[in-house]
Amino acid sequence: MKAIVVKPHQPGMEVKDVNIEEKVGKGQVLVKTLYTGVCGTDRGIVGNKLSFTRPQEGWSELILGHEAFGQVKEVGEGVKELRKGDYVVPVVRRGCGVCLNCKIGKQDFCETGNFVEAGIRGKNGFMREEFVDDEIYLVKVPEAIKDIAVLTEPLSNVVKAIEEVMHIQQRMVWNCEDGAYDCRNAYVVGTGPIGTFFSLLLRTYGFNVYMLNRRDPSPAEEYVSTRIEAEFVNTTKGVDHLPKADIIVDTSGFPSAFVPLMHKMNKNSILVLFGTQTGDKVQIDADLVTFMVENNIAVVGSVNANKWHFKSAVNYLTMWKEKYGDLLNRMITTVVTPENAKEILENKPKGEIKSVIKW
Amino acid sequence: MKAIVVKPHQPGMEVKDVNIEEKVGKGQVLVKTLYTGVCGTDRGIVGNKLSFTRPQEGWSELILGHEAFGQVKEVGEGVKELRKGDYVVPVVRRGCGVCLNCKIGKQDFCETGNFVEAGIRGKNGFMREEFVDDEIYLVKVPEAIKDIAVLTEPLSNVVKAIEEVMHIQQRMVWNCEDGAYDCRNAYVVGTGPIGTFFSLLLRTYGFNVYMLNRRDPSPAEEYVSTRIEAEFVNTTKGVDHLPKADIIVDTSGFPSAFVPLMHKMNKNSILVLFGTQTGDKVQIDADLVTFMVENNIAVVGSVNANKWHFKSAVNYLTMWKEKYGDLLNRMITTVVTPENAKEILENKPKGEIKSVIKW
Amino acid sequence: MKAIVVKPHQPGMEVKDVNIEEKVGKGQVLVKTLYTGVCGTDRGIVGNKLSFTRPQEGWSELILGHEAFGQVKEVGEGVKELRKGDYVVPVVRRGCGVCLNCKIGKQDFCETGNFVEAGIRGKNGFMREEFVDDEIYLVKVPEAIKDIAVLTEPLSNVVKAIEEVMHIQQRMVWNCEDGAYDCRNAYVVGTGPIGTFFSLLLRTYGFNVYMLNRRDPSPAEEYVSTRIEAEFVNTTKGVDHLPKADIIVDTSGFPSAFVPLMHKMNKNSILVLFGTQTGDKVQIDADLVTFMVENNIAVVGSVNANKWHFKSAVNYLTMWKEKYGDLLNRMITTVVTPENAKEILENKPKGEIKSVIKW
Amino acid sequence: MKAIVVKPHQPGMEVKDVNIEEKVGKGQVLVKTLYTGVCGTDRGIVGNKLSFTRPQEGWSELILGHEAFGQVKEVGEGVKELRKGDYVVPVVRRGCGVCLNCKIGKQDFCETGNFVEAGIRGKNGFMREEFVDDEIYLVKVPEAIKDIAVLTEPLSNVVKAIEEVMHIQQRMVWNCEDGAYDCRNAYVVGTGPIGTFFSLLLRTYGFNVYMLNRRDPSPAEEYVSTRIEAEFVNTTKGVDHLPKADIIVDTSGFPSAFVPLMHKMNKNSILVLFGTQTGDKVQIDADLVTFMVENNIAVVGSVNANKWHFKSAVNYLTMWKEKYGDLLNRMITTVVTPENAKEILENKPKGEIKSVIKW
């Protein structure tokens, strides 16, 4: 079948026929791929910038693709819930089977590091016409959101991060006087798909959201921020007018982007680190540490998501589609065929929020 | 009565008679001060290095002292539990009465900043022969630990920090296979009284504890680390041999002390910021941020303690006295009279773990 | 304006003009009522069966109605989020202002009992053409669900109960091997609107849901259970074939309905008490207590909901509308005018799931 | 060696020589038994009243004893912490290895039921001169409490129950205005060793404790209740004078003992079921269910304890010994030799709180 493959640790990618013999075993289903999304990790692998990528055992090449959406074509013996025709999204990371978190379905907190991730490390991905997977790693998706369900995977990571935040912040009373979060302010640094999802999710919790970038908004960003009643802030024009932040989410990975904002953090607030980068540096001093101590400030780095977060992500997409109409469709700014995937895998299209491949 | 007073924002201190007319009102008791402890904050006030100190409303001077232990001399009307002769430790911070955390007894998470702290800001402290206080702010202490109960206040802050850690780390499974924490490693940076308490408390939880300093241990530190089965580590000789840290506690306040240790942090680990300093700087880069993201690393700044933590601290002191004998007595390295307090308030005695004033 | 009023502790109700002078004060808005729902509590008040009902201070009559949905007509000074034209649902219970839970927006856990509830006790309700309310007690609703938003209030109570369950069950690992709840079984006793909402919500969490009643399903129930992939169980035909229950929710209030099911409870399971009744009795014995002890079984009675639960309920309704189409519309089995409200307030229409009044 | 053995499902017991060849394997230690405690379960096995008891695989008899305290005699290869001479208490239950709770060290919440319990079911117990055990199941005990450490096991179960209570009650704000629990009232039904431990532990949390029995206190009970500042209540004289209960702990197992107290439960309160009995019956009605619903009342059955609870129990014993002196020694009302164990295993000594065998 047709697939998009890379040779780990060599730049470049190829659309080609691969010969995979996958039998639908016990508890497994065959999924026809409908859409796969493209993100910075995919481009990092294609550009040979990610040291941790590696092929599946016994393979020299890696089939790319971890953001996927498909439809069940065939159901194996012993499958409990899924039926032919059901729409599904696969979970990316598969646990090590050894550490306690992996043993109870929290492989996003794998402690050994011996997990595999489809399309990234140790396991073929979903950029191919079809794939066989265990039912246990597939999340059912309502037909109503089949046009946007390819967004599930990136959103799942955001859901996990915010779930952690809400847990951590129960170290004290963080809700407002009315029991909700309408009095709380969030800065989201970076306005790509991840920044947009953080903004959407925090708005859903009730936070006043400020979407921060070092420039004015693109028309798509303008639309999104207006529609969800968030404020887009061009930080080069200053942030002094903003109220203190109860949460800052960094999706940029640049310490030079978020460290200068930290003096705006409110007492008991939290900084979420989500972006990963290289090459940027910034100086911190003892006064910043003292500030964090005296104000009970927390920081949390968050990566990946487990099946529960995928399920929640599907629920949020469904809810937002009803509430916001085509807002999420507008986030999908480019759709290409597998044959044309090279153009979006090697370069980021101008004005992109999310680019996807239609299979 | 005799008291130790400072003029906020002027260096120096004075032992003198103050004329305080305190009546034992409803729900209040009169406490005869037995011991008060001295810490860096007291010396900071005396040395005019702390900008936030201020006298009680209507006063030009401030009576110093926030680490105290005393005995009930007189009981006011409506007092519920306390009786004449009971030993007590007073809580330091009194809430703003406005924010939600202060309303439910969590003034250590006061959000307005409009709290007062006895002996520090806005309220006279306990370095005086006796004081009147509300029963609600007094924690009863068993007679058995009357010789060490002056350590309650510093320990209470440590209890609060570790309580937060244990809450935050429930974001995943952090315990070991046997349900306890014996497989976990803790680095404690700084070996003063706070570092010692963190080490004691983490050992009590079962952690393997490494007490880190930039020098070899003093005899007292040698004794303590051996007695509690922790390992004293002179970091100038390298830390490569240490196992990865599941928790790092910084009690130094110097980013140059703890940032270089962060590459030793295990997946899902946590860094506790407790020390406050000025003048130290260090560079952090995007790789460190990426490391924190990909390993789900958390950081928490922690300050102060509420009554619950004081009560827990009393329980820990009681338990440790039974278990470790005179270990805690040995932490009190200097005892002076009020008349001689100047020497320990203006200078740190050599080999000090904790200096106290006996009233 | 037109309103539906009762004289507490006298049977009957009246649709009549009431003369209310409500000014839109600071932080308040004027809401035009669009729909009000009717439940057992309303009928209990009309039938003079609820001892706790009482009029608002200064009134001899009580305006009925606690399940409401309306549209903002006028916005007072100092209102932050709401705009004219916004759709809203009001929270029912207003806290005592004294106990700690009410102080932090958790009036559903009011400890003094000195709360008021609109349309039930101490506060006029929403069965009138318009009402003034504080913004803080109004939850904004997306226009997309304006046809079903009257269901928010009953659902909010269900959301609160399940939120409690999910909290309580974190006393151990309750999720399945894959991190979700698809391996867990729920019995929901009673198939009215509340039972239906519990079934919907538990299905959303992934539970296998069994909807239990003492009879075969009505066509509406048949439709609902099929649509959400739950199994309707006529308990008069036996429950031996059901798998063990991880959660049993009783919405009936009859101990004779749920106690005989308790032997089917799995280890670590939980029983939710939600229904309120009188006149039913059942015998329990020491063996049942022993069974609960040895299997770590929990029980929780749950009542009311706070603003956070109302907000969540709005999100669930929005999501379910996208996912299930007109399923929720079908739950509204009767719509009458205020003039004809008597017929649904004095008697339960045949085949009713939810009856509402259109204003 | 000498051991106390039973033939499961036959009444009676025997002190005799057993021929056990236990080698100290990897990660194991040999423990010399110092004390074993006797409780209702032991007497139930000896009296052939417990259906679930069974011998270890390959055995026809069962060595009795699950409450033990001993000293390490020999240390196997790969043992990490324990040294020869260390004092230890063994954990009773060993997990099934299959369910998620057992996989993470929470075998007290085993879901399959396929655990074994030393001296009770499927595993030889500790009523013998020495035993080999895995280090992972042994909890180190400070020498200071070697005279009372045999109380660890019964206390561990109480610690687990209260840990659950404190978790469950975080469904709302349960602490008092000062952040502690001094405003809360606890009824403990039953004044045996378990009731006494609940009373001690709840007092330590700050609760006002009422120790309830159907008779006046024995001298030992009088001493204990006075010493810990709890009130002993003879319920046959009425309970109307007691303040409302925030927690009721039943250690009796008789529903006729605790159900009649439930009308005294405060809003948001919790009932802990700990006792197991047979043969007692009581009627409950819909009004009680309604009361539990409208007041958010929870119930939790609690059984067993894991290693973490054993460690906490050791800490509490240590702390209480320092605080209360010989209070805990006085709880050990009878000490016999193995040869005389029959008298305390077949009959409960008059005035017993805890009977133990000295090896």
Automatic annotation (TrEMBL), chains A, B, C, D:
Domain Alcohol dehydrogenase-like N-terminal: 25-143
Catalytic class of the enzyme: oxidoreductase
Annotated binding of substrate, by residue: 41, 117, 153, 157, 304
Sequence positions that bind NADP(+): 191-194, 213-215, 274-276, 302-304, 348
One Gene Ontology biological process: non-phosphorylated glucose catabolic process
PROSITE patterns the UniProt entry points to: ADH_ZINC (PS00059)
EC number(s) on file: 1.1.1.47
Keyword hit for Oxidoreductase: yes
A Pfam family reported for this protein in Swiss-Prot or TrEMBL: ADH_N
CDD domains xref list: glucose_DH (cd08230)
InterPro entries, per database record: ADH-like_N, ADH_Zn_CS, Glc_1-DH_arc, Glu_dehyd_C, GroES-like_sf, NAD(P)-bd_dom_sf, Zn_alcohol_dh
Single annotated GO MF: NADP+ binding
SUPFAM superfamilies documented for this protein: GroES-like (SSF50129), NAD(P)-binding Rossmann-fold domains (SSF51735)
Entries under HAMAP family matching the protein: Glucose_DH (MF_02127)
Family classification: Belongs to the zinc-containing alcohol dehydrogenase family. Glucose 1-dehydrogenase subfamily.
Protein name from the UniProt record: Glucose 1-dehydrogenase
Source organism of the structure: Acidianus ambivalens (Desulfurolobus ambivalens)
